[in-house]
Amino acid sequence: MYGYRPTTRLLSMLELLQARGRMGGPELAKRLEVGERTVRRYVAMLQEMGVPVEAERGRYGAYTLRPGFKLPPIMFTDEEALALALGLLSARRLGLSGAAPAVEGAQAKLERVMPEGLRERVRTFEEVVVPAAAAPARLPAGEVVVTLSAAVRERKRVRMRYRSGDSGETRRDVDPYAVVQGDAFWYTFGYCHLR
């Protein structure tokens, strides 16, 4: 995922901590494709360079950056920029309509910093690749998908309106387990407390 050079992984770890705020050693090790011992070594290296990485000990311990610490923006590699551009295109094609302004803004910023050759690769992909499934007939607001995804991640219950074909609309408390897009529709899998 992050290549094999320790410097690349070290910078990637710093970016992950800045983006996520708090990450456990096992999660960092998995993301960076290294062992937990290597993660501890990277933390020590960052601290030696003056980066304020703090370690919370214990069963649910994690690594964090001291509040207020920010890195200057880091330029993307060609592969990272291409991955972002393709992800933004996929979000648009999946019908995340509520996110459309953000997607368009991010795409425009990305295109401004991309070299021309890379821009051409993205345009080619956009023009030639056809999605296998149609965009959802009824698009959910991007915020709905984001809210449900956060509830899945944080294991929080949500209250939602549910419309069935025969019994009309009801309000339900649901523990969502996953959010899935397929066959032109969005689905939430979970436990419904009404049933």
Top-tier CATH class of the largest domain: Mainly Alpha
Which strands sit side by side, in order, in the main sheet? 1-3-2
The separation of the N and C termini measures 42 Å
Please, how many domains? Answer: 3
Radius of gyration: 21 Å
Number of strands: 6
Q: What letter string, H or E per element, gives the SSE order?
A: HEHHEEHHHHEEE
Could you estimate the helical fraction of the residues in percent?
A: 40-55%
> Rough shape?
flat
* CATH architecture annotation name of the largest domain: Orthogonal Bundle
User: In what range is the share of β-strand residues?
Assistant: 15-25%
CATH topology of the largest domain: Arc Repressor Mutant, subunit A
Q: Quickly give the structural class.
A: alpha+beta
Q: Calculate the mean pLDDT score and round it.
A: 80
**Uncertain spans:** none
Largest sheet: 3 strands, antiparallel
**Superfamily (CATH H level) name of the largest domain:** Winged helix-like DNA-binding domain superfamily/Winged helix DNA-binding domain
Please tally the helical runs, counting DSSP H or I stretches of 4 or more residues.
Answer: 7
Which tags fit this structure?
195 residues, alpha+beta, Arc Repressor Mutant, subunit A, 6 strands, flat
Detailed description of the structure:
With 195 residues, the protein is an alpha+beta fold. The protein folds into three domains: 6-65, Arc Repressor Mutant, subunit A; 78-128; 142-192, no CATH class. The protein is built from seven helices and six strands. The chain has helices spanning 6-20, 25-32, 36-48, 78-93, 100-113, 116-128, 142-154, and strands at residues 22-23, 53-56, 62-65, 158-164, 168-182, 185-192. A three-stranded antiparallel β-sheet has the order 1-3-2. A three-stranded antiparallel β-sheet has the order 4-5-6. β2 and β3 (62-65) form a beta hairpin. α2 crosses α3. The longest helix is centred in the middle third of the chain and has 16 residues, at 78-93. The chain is flat and about 65 Å long. The N and C termini lie far apart (42 Å).
